[in-house]
Amino acid sequence: SSMIQGDVITMSxxxxxxxxxxxxxxxxxxxxxxxxxxxxxxQIGKSGxxxxxxxxIEEVYxxxxxxxxxxxxxxxxxxxxxxxxxxxxxxxxxxxxxxRYPDGTYTYLSTDFKTKEDKIIILDSKGDTITxxxxxxxxIDKPSAKNLxxxxxxxxxxxxxxxxxRTNSPNLHTGMNSPFLLVNEKDTLYTLDKAAQMHPKYxxxxxxxxxxFYWNSFLFESDKFITGRALFNFRQYPNIDKKYxxxxxxxxxxxxxxxxxxxxxxxxxxxxxxDLDANAIAFYPKALANGKMYQLVDAIQFLDIAEKSSSQKMxxxxxxxTEESNPxxxxxxLK
Length: 335
Hints:
335 residues
């Protein structure tokens, strides 16, 4: 669609029954709803400070004919067909990651820098707290002399002060039927139930790569596999090829084995090998839902890869695009 311009890397996808919502997490950019054919349907709400608006989007969750826009201290629900406001739920939960159950129950992983606590908070569909559980207490990292100097300068200039940092923070990820929680050394993937109870589900064997190996940003689950991204810390692994410093991996549930993905020079990223359309684009999802994986590709990049590729399907799609057809949505149906 020519309605969306910008860096595809920062865009996210929320699949809907009609198509997809394209949005930017951690921003105030307005989410846009498009049909499966790329036709614009609606702008979702608008940015602002009123009850019906949002200042800063943490995440969005599509459900039936509605979409929840989660902000720092509230959840706003909008109609998908026209983007109009439906309801507001104040939460007031600081520094969080979250997961939405199909029935509207929300699981929050809240990091409170005042109490130095990581907590799981479960809210029902009305926003009332069902339960709260302490996961761990933490210490804030001591800032370096250079960072203190920068913070003092920033405060004098009236810009940004000192950011609080802590290491080894837990992470909440979206599973098929429940949230995943990674804590401590992050070698065990737990599921969380609605009573905030943790259940060990998968054990990750890092082998020789355990020191300095971190899960990063996101994780997706299907009935057959789990895929995610991890980071090799430069201090522990200074000689690793920079192309594989961020590694995309797949865990096969049936065999219990994990593999890294091959780097694609054209896409400048790792991804799944396309076994249906030879020499086509490598694939790594921005979203996984209802048996489908969704990827966004920059239009110029797609046109460039199509020109080099022997994939007839890619060439047919490329013939309908221009450099302003940004982004290009690629959808893969899982076997």
